[in-house]
Amino acid sequence: MDFKKLQYFLTIAEEGQITKAAQRLHMAQPPLSHQLKVFEDELGVKLIERGSRKIQLTELGRALQERGGQILELIDKTEKELKELNEGLQGTLSIGTVAAWGATLLPDRISSLHEQYPGLNFQLWEGDGHRIRELLDTGVIDIGIVRLPFDSKKYESIRLPEEPIIAAISNVWGYDLSKPYTSLLELMNIPLILHRRNENVIEYYEQRGLQPRILCRHEDVRSMLVWADAGLGAAIVTRSAASLVQNNNLQYKEVIDPPLKVTAAIIWKRGRSLTVAARHFLESFAVDELGKNKL
């Protein structure tokens, strides 16, 4: 595959028009159209539907757009790693994380690492656990932060401390301000906004023959908190997620009956050589923490 032609295709796909893509690439439109046609011929597939001002990607074109971006990212990452090895600790550290842990775990550690190594840059990817593991598998990121469980045969890891589950509740529900705790039974009176991985909450109610009002099953913790802030219901999230939305209208109550906990881990691909930057990031965790939590 010609990577320069791949870059041409990705620019066309992103801009939606060959004319705009040509302007962005600082080249004339006819040569760009020709390069796209040659690329399609080399691959033996049709990537775009022609005949309208705004191009439409075929199914294969959409697949290549997703994978092609990862391919170019990996090439760029490899080039930077080679330069890093030649010149010392520079380049880019790529980390994938679920939102709550990214907002609370990373800032202090990245700040400290950047202070020690000013030439080091960072790239952060967010998504659910499946997305983070996929980015690890394809080599787009160096390190991932995900919830347990995961395949320990595929990934090495450092377990993070357990986090309690909390309920984020708007003041419009008139909840008792003096109580720092709550229970799932008490929350029966409020619509619930659950993360898709809150299966333990669903199981708790099902085992007791209860049917709470599940307003929404969500994947984005920030959006869950925004919904809760709007008074739509109680968002069931991890304690660290409370820092994602700063608003005095929300109360945060730890769920102690039953005592719900969530555990996350820093993971990286087994058998894959870590970049110097990634190794330094892992070393930023206390030595005793590494000893205790290595899975």
DSSP helix count? 10
Order of helices and strands: HHHEEHEHEHEEEEEHEHEEEEHH
Instruction: Based on Cα principal axes, name the global outline.
Output: globular
Largest sheet: 7 strands, mixed
Alpha-carbon distance between the termini? 39 Å
Please give the CATH architecture of the largest domain: 3-Layer(aba) Sandwich
Q: What percent of residues adopt helix (DSSP H or I)?
A: 40-55%
Radius of gyration: 24 Å
* Beta-strand content: 15-25%
- Unreliable residue stretches: 286-295
Number of domains: 3
Say how many strands there are.
Answer: 14
Report the CATH superfamily of the largest domain.
Periplasmic binding protein-like II
Can you tell me the CATH class of the largest domain? Alpha Beta
Mean pLDDT, rounded to whole units?
A: 84
Helix/strand-derived category reads alpha/beta
